[in-house]
Amino acid sequence: MSSFKRALIPAIRSARPRPTTLQRLPVVASRPLALRKYSTEPVKPATETPEKPAENPADAATPNYTEVLAEKDKQIASLTDSYRRALAEAENVRARARKEVEDTKAFSIQKFAKDLLDTADILQMALKALPAEELEAGKNQHLTNLHQGVSMTRVEMLKSFKRYGVEEFHPLNEKFDPNLHQALFQAPIPGKEPGTVFEVVKVGYTIHGRCLRPAQVGVVQDTQ
Question: Do 190 and 169 belong together in one domain?
Answer without folding.
Answer: yes
